[in-house]
Amino acid sequence: MDLKTLTSLSGVSGNEYEARSAIIKQLESMGISYECDVMGNVIAKKGDRGPKVLLDAHMDEVGLMITHVEKNGFLRFAPVGGIDPRVLVSKRVLVGKEKIPGVIGAKAIHLQERDERTQVIPIDRLFIDIGAESGEQAQGKVKAGDYVVFDTEYQELSPGIIKAKALDDRVGCALLFEVLKQDWKEIQLYAVFAVQEEVGLRGARVAAFAVEPDMGIALEGTVCADIPGTDKEFQATRLGKGVALSIMDRGSIPDRKMLNQLVKLAEDEGIPYQFREATSGGNDAGAIQQTKAGCPVASVSVPCRYIHTPCSLMSTSDFEAARKLLIKFLESVEGGFRP
C-alpha cells in the first residue's frame, strides 16, 4: 500500500477503523496471516523459526473530537494527541463518519482586543463551522463524540518531496508493508500496526505483551526542523539526509548493539543515515522495551517537517534509505543476532 493511499485514510487515536480496515484488506491481498487484538492492533506474522522480531508502526494520527454542539450550530472540540493550537485556525476539516466538511474558526482580527492579537488563541475559543444555521441543523449531521480529521490532500510538491497529513506515522505503516513483501525464513517477523500511540503508546504495550519479542524496532515519522530560524544544533533531523536513527528520547534508550549494527550496515551498504539530534518526544519503542520481561529496542525513522499539524512534508529518498536499512538489518539477524 502506497503513502498516498495510507495518508488519505482516517485514523485518529481511538477511531482507527478506516485505516485498520484498509490495512487488513491489503494484508489479505498479499496472503499474509494476521490477527486483531482487543485494543484494535493488527499483528501480521511472517516466518516460523528464529528470533522474534517485532516491527511496530502506529496507524493512528492526531486529530480532534467534538465535545459540544452550540445552539447556533457551531461545534466545540478538544484535541486528540499533541496539537499546537497555533496551527488550527482556518484549517479545513472533515467531521464524523460522514466526513462533513468544515472550517476551524475564530474571532476575526478586526474584532479582537489589542492584547488578544498578541496571544495564541486557546482551543476553548476556537470552533468548527460546518455552515449550519442552528444547533438542531448541526445535530442532524454531527454529535458530541464524533472524530475530526484534517482535510489535507496528498501532493508531490517537487520531485521526491511530498506533503500529506498523518505522515506520523503512515510512513511507518508503508515501511511495514515493504518489509512484509520479503520472504523471511530464519526470523519470526511480527509486523504490528499499532493503535493509540498518540495518546500514550497504548496499543504497542498490549501487542508487545502478547508477542514477547526478542527485539523490537519502532518505525516512525520523526521531527525534522531544518527550517528558517532554527540553529543547526536544534534541527533534530534534516530532510533528504537519510534515515534517522535515535540515540535516546524521552521514552527509551536504544540497545547499543542494535544501534551499532544499524550504523555499520548503513556505512557498509552506502545507505545515507543521520542521528536524531534531539531527545524530546518518544515513540512505541518506549512501551515495547518495558513490556513484560522487556527486550532490546531501536528506532528507525523518516524525517518529516511539521509533524502533529494538518500538513507534513517528507522526502522519498529518506523513505528509501529507511527501507533498505531495515531489510539489511533483518537479514543480519536471521537465525540470531550477530553484531
Summarize the model shown.
The protein is α+β, with helices and mostly antiparallel strands. The protein is 26% helix and 27% strand. It starts with a helix and ends in a 6-residue tail after the last helix.
Protein model, in words:
This protein is an alpha+beta fold and 339 residues long. It folds into two domains: 3-61 and 165-333, Zn peptidases (Aminopeptidase, 3-Layer(aba) Sandwich); 63-150, Peptidase M42, domain 2 (Elongation Factor Tu (Ef-tu), domain 3), CATH 2.40.30. 26% of the residues lie in helices and 27% in strands. The chain has eight helices and 17 strands. It has helices spanning 3-8, 17-30, 135-139, 167-180, 202-211, 256-269, 285-290, 316-333; strands at 33-36, 42-46, 52-58, 63-69, 75-80, 92-95, 100-105, 127-129, 147-150, 155-158, 161-164, 188-194, 215-224, 243-246, 273-276, 297-305, 312-315. Strands 1, 2, 3, 10, 11, 12, 13, 14, 15, 16 and 17 form an eleven-stranded mixed beta sheet that branches. β10 and β11 form a beta hairpin. α6 (256-269) packs across α8. The longest helix has 18 residues, at 316-333. The two termini are 32 Å apart. The model has no long low-confidence stretch (mean pLDDT 94).
